[in-house]
C-alpha cells in the first residue's frame, strides 16, 4: 500500500479536537463523508476526507481577494475562531446574528458586495445562504453529519458545533490561505497560534 499523503496537521491534533465526531443524525448529503457509526449512535466522519476537504476549501478561498469573502457564524462556539480568522487574513466576519439584507438590499447603508460566503452551519446561517443564492454568490459551508447540502457549492465536513473543532478548522484555513496568498512563506510560522482560535472549555 502506498504511503498516505501528509495531513495538514498531525493526526492526533485532529483527534484531540473532536473534529471527526458527528451527531446521531445523518443526512443523505453527508453519508459519503461518514466513516462509521459508533455503538452509542454517533456518526464519525472520515478524517482523511476532512483533511482533504479543508485543504481544497482553503485553495477555493484563495481564488478570492479578502474583501470579496464574508464569514458568517451565528453559533457562539465559533465566534472566537472566526474572529481570529478574520484578524489573521483580513477577511470580513459576522460573528453573531447575520443582519438581513446586507447582501441583497442596495438601499441599506450596511449593504456589502461579496463573491463568496463561508457559513459555519447551513441551518443556523440559512438566511445568509438564501441571500447569497439571490445574488449569485458562491457558498461554502462547514457541515456536520446532520446538515443538508442544498444550495452549498462546497462542503467541508467536520464537527461544526465544538469549540475545539471549529478553532482547528479556522486555524488551518487561515494558515493555508495566508501561505497561498504569500502573506507568510511556506516555511514560516503562523503569526497567530492555534490557541488564539480556541476557547478553553
Averaging pLDDT over every residue, what do you get? 93
Helix content: 25-40%
Shape: globular
Terminal CA distance = 39 Å
Major sheet attributes: 5 strands, parallel
Strand/helix succession? HEEHEHEEHEEH
Supply the CATH class.
Answer: Alpha Beta
What is the CATH T-level topology?
A: Rossmann fold
Q: How many β strands by DSSP?
A: 7
> Which structural category do the helix and sheet elements fall into?
alpha/beta
Domains (count): 1
Give me the side-by-side strand order of the main sheet. 4-3-5-6-7
- Quickly count the helices: 5
How would you briefly describe this protein structure?
By secondary structure, this protein is α/β, with parallel strands linked by helices.
Protein described:
The chain is α/β, with parallel strands linked by helices and 201 residues long. It has one domain (11-181): Rossmann fold (3-Layer(aba) Sandwich). It is 30% helix and 15% strand. The chain has helices at residues 11-17, 47-61, 79-89, 126-135, 163-180; strands at residues 34-37, 43-45, 69-73, 92-95, 116-119, 138-143, 154-157. The strands form two sheets. The protein has a five-stranded parallel beta sheet with strand order 4-3-5-6-7. Helix 3 packs parallel to helix 5 (163-180). The model has no long low-confidence stretch (mean pLDDT 93).
